[in-house]
Amino acid sequence: MAEFKEISPDASAGEKLLNWVDNRFPASKLYKEHLSEYYAPKNFNFWYFFGSLALLVLVIQIVTGIFLVMHYKPDANLAFGSVEYIMRDVPWGWLIRYMHSTGASAFFIVVYMHMYRGLIYGSYRKPRELVWVFGCAIFLCLMAEAFMGYLLPWGQMSYWGAQVIVNLFAAVPFVGPDLALLIRGDYVVGDATLNRFFSFHVIAVPLVLLGLVVAHIIALHEVGSNNPDGVEIKGPNAPKDANGHPLDGVPFHPYYTVHDILGVSGFLLVFSAVIFFAPEFGGYFLEYNNFIPADPLKTPLHIAPVWYFTPFYSMLRAITSEMMYVLIACVLAGAYFGAAKTNLPKVIKAGVVGAAVFVSLLMLSIDAKFWGVVVMGGAVVILFFLPWLDNCAVKSIRYRPDWHKYMYGVFVVNFIVLAYLGVQPPSAIGERVSQVGTLFYFGFFLLMPMWSQMGATKPVPDRVTFTPH
Amino acid sequence: MSDTPVDTNKRTWLIASTCAGAVGGVAVAVPFVSTFQPSEKAKAAGAAVEVDISALKPGEKMTVEWRGKPVWVVKRTPEQLESLNKTETQLADPKSERKPGELTPAYARNQARSIKPEIFVAVGICTHLGCSPSDKFQTGAQPSLPDDWNGGFLCPCHGSTFDIAGRVFKNKPAPDNLEIPPHMYLSDTKLLIGEDKKA
User: Fold this and answer.
1) Does B124 touch chain A (CB under 8 A)?
2) Mean pLDDT, to the nearest integer, of B44-54?
3) B36 to chain A, closest Cα gap in Å
4) Residues paired with B71 in a beta bridge
5) Rounded distance between C-alpha atoms, residue A21 and residue B186, angstroms
6) At what angle do helices A368-384 and A129-151 cross, to 10 degrees?
7) Per-residue confidence band for B199, with pLDDT thresholds at 50, 70 and 90
8) What crossing angle do the helices spanning A346-365 and A321-340 adopt, rounded to 10°?
9) Which of A15, A173, B75, B180 is the Cys-Cys partner for A11 at CB 3.0 to 4.6 Å?
10) Which of B158, B159, B170, B189 is catalytic?
11) A167/B130 Cβ within 8 A
């Protein structure tokens, strides 16, 4: 236990109160550690707005969500009507609902930007691996949250989207059909499904999400923030002032709190514009078919997930029985490379080849539908391993070989193309493009241990690049 | 850590009681996970549906709900039945041999996949990911369909195609033919969906 601090009897009432609290709860200590004496690198740029914006959107979603639950009815017969009731009859209900629905898309925009920032500046590298891993877990929770939330308005897209995604689980060999039954709680998506998704959406997943956000921030504040130069400002050799504070850092409060107000203002400007002038965003944020009540007897002519899921959905659709042969070739080529071109012990080599043959046999015997699910899941899971895939000598894109920039550029374009194809109805050419895109996506990560080492890196400066303004 | 030697007897009991506690904890999870299963009410809701098909004209389709799923009843024209010969070679499972118990009852294991050749009864749920295919009875070239289309069904979600007997075409995402529900004729114009003679 910390030493009990006495305060001068002349101190003000406020100081006395704070001292009383501090002797019982580390209020000042937490404030200092995480705000006023948390030193962040002073060279943060535009990309560093998105972390605090993600927190802002989380708060918006929780607050609007609480108010929506007051009027919403999780019942297959009443849900659609209750959402329309919120939109038409609840005073200002339309605003709260549009804030929540736009917030969902905003959350993904902000989080994708935040993750991209981490990607280009190597913010996942040692010692920040766990910051990244917690972040990926948050992303996974967000996807679950968005998917289950989308069922609640009980429109046509809600219903058939859930039907398709739940049926994906039925593709798992042996236990699949029972698993899908367990998720739905009925033989078709119905009232039972709606109720449990409601429970998960409003309480279970948000609790996990909040815990992960806390873990993400605690881990970040333990290791310190990275920056666009990838220079460690708190390392043993980093320059520090007489108090041991890094010369290249500034306290988070007031410097970055004020700085982030700019980001928040810009964000709220765009956010409000969307809410007031284009809440459906041309069918991308709220799909038009979702304004038709769920009809279990009729599938809309074109069903597609909401935009933020479409890159992964494209990869799912890309896995056809033809594509399986390409994937098997990739597995075998990988095994050949492992066995012939490396210096691993013989036992491990034999194991690699054996495993590859076994996986190939599984790939031939199990339906492509299941592998589509595996690929879609793998596309998210692979992100968790990024810290151990990147072998580049430097962290930041600024000091990597120039062609790495093109690599990341192609990655982004590929991701956007996959997203676009996922919105479109299936077509022969789209299928080919998404197959190439899927191979590139996985190649980018799985071959990263090799390509990230290639090329000459540029010298990394000792101090961060910063010009006062 | 202190240098006190480990009391192995105490440790054994510690491990044993922790294991016992873990078993208890896992056991408590059973009732919670069990609540995810379909309720007794949901299980009981699978009653058979009676359908009057007297008003159905050749080339028309009607949809009824059975266990929350769409069930189609199509009265096929002689031309549509004739087209089943043409599609035969392009199908993945023309003789409905896959998963016979689940997808095709014995009395429907024929070319038309029906009891009476002209009346086709099927669950209108794609065997791929559970969308409901749309009617494409118009023959000939049209968007998303081959030029020699003979009439059938197209799943809007992932482009699987089925012929007019619900048989899936080759190289499509859907692995199997459409499911034929158990059904029987109560009279010439009355169908019972959800039950057949053996029940």
Assistant:
1) yes
2) 84
3) 5
4) B64, B123
5) 81
6) 140
7) very low
8) 170
9) A15
10) B158
11) yes
